[in-house]
Amino acid sequence: MQRLRLNIFGGGKVVNKQERIHPHPSEIHGDNMLKPTLTHSRSHSGSSVVNVLDDLRVKNVRPLIPPQILMEDYPVSHAAINTITAGRIGADAIVKGQDDRLLVIVGPCSIHDTTAGLEYAKLLKAYADGAKDHLHILMRTYFEKPRTTVGWKGLINGNKFPSICDEKLAPWTDRLQTDPSLDGSFQINKGLRIARGFLLECADLGVPVAVEFLDQISPQYIADTVSWGAIGARTTESQCHRELASGLSTPVGFKNGTNGSVGIAIDAIRAAKSGHVFLSVTKQGISAIVETNGNDACHVILRGSNTGPNFSSSHIKECVQELSKAGLKPLVMVDCSHGNSEKKHERQLVVAEDIATQLENPETQDHIMGVMIESNLVEGKQSLESLGPNKLAYGQSITDACLDWESTKKALDRLKAAVGQRRAQKLAAKSSGSV
After folding, report:
1. Can you supply a Gene Ontology BP term from the record (predicted)?
2. d(CA 15, CA 182)
C-alpha cells in the first residue's frame, strides 16, 4: 500500500530512520530551502518521517482508562450527591460573601494511605457536625503533588510507593485490593481508581472534599466528587489552569505565586471568570474542544512566599484593595501552612491565632472568608525516600509536615469562637443602629 509523504528537505527523497535527518548544505540554498515536496513511498515499519521526528524523548505510551468507565464502575450514591452538593453550595455562598461562616479546608498535605485518610475523615466528620453553624469544613484530599524539582507526585501518579489500601475500606474493598508494586511502574489507572473510591467513601460519610487540580485531564475522573478546588502557587499563572477553572463546577481558590505575587492570583480570577475555548478530553476519553461559561466563584489564597508570610492584617488589607480595584469581591482565604508557617508545621497554630484575632477585630474582620490547615493523625512528617514504603509510620505525612489531630481541634475551636464573636459584634452593631 502506498502512502502520500511529505519531504520537508526537498529533492524528492523520503528520510528513513537509518538515514541522515539533516539536509546537505547544497539542499537548503535558493529554491530548495525547506521546500516541501510531496512524494510517494511504500510504508514499512520504522520508515515514517513521523517516527524519526516525533516522540524522540518519549520512553513509553500506555492506555488510560476513559473517565466514563471509571465513573460507571464507581457511581455516586444519593448520599454522596447530597454531601457534595451541600459542600459546594456552602463554599460558593461564603466565597461570594453571602454566608458569614468561615470556609475551612483542613486535612493531610497529601493522601498516601487511604485507611489512615478514612480514619481522619471520620474524626473530621464528628467535629464538623458540631461546628457547622460557624465553620464550613471540607477535608483536604490531595492526590497529586506539584514538585519543585523531583519527588513523589502523589497517589494517582506515584501509587507504587505506599501501602495504601486494605480490607477496611468498604464498600470498595474488591476494587481497592491494589497491592501497589514497587517496581517503578506508575500504575496511574490504578491510582485513579483508588482516588475516586476514596473520595466517594468520604462523600458517603458526609465529608465534602477539596482537591488541587494539576492538569486538565484528571478532573474528568474525580471532579464530580469534589466541592472545592485549588490552583497552586506554581500553576496560578498558567493559562491552561485558568481555562480549567473557568469550567469547573466548584468554587476555586488561586494561590499567590511562590515569589509572593498576589497580582497573578487576581489576574487568574479575572481570567477564570470569563468563558474560554480550549483543548481537553471528554468523559469518553476523546480529544475535544471545550467551551466554558466562566466561574464566578473564584478567590485568592494567601499562602506566603519564599520571602516570608503574608497573613498579617496589613498584607490582607493590601490584597483586598487590589481585589477591589479589579472589581472583585474583597475577600481572601489564608493558608496557615507553607510560606505563612515558614514551613514549620507547629507555626500553623500561630497563624490560626492571628487570623482569629483579625476576625474579632471590626477593622479587619470583613475580609477573611476562609483558612487552610495541613493536618494529619500524627504530627510532623517522615521521609519516604529514606524509610521506604514498608517502614512508614501510620497516619503521618510523607510530604509537608502537618499538625496532629489534637492540635488541629485547638485551632478549629479558636477559629469557631472567633466567628461567633464576629457574628455577635455585627448583631450588636445592627441592633444599635450603627450598621
Report:
1. amino acid biosynthetic process
2. 41
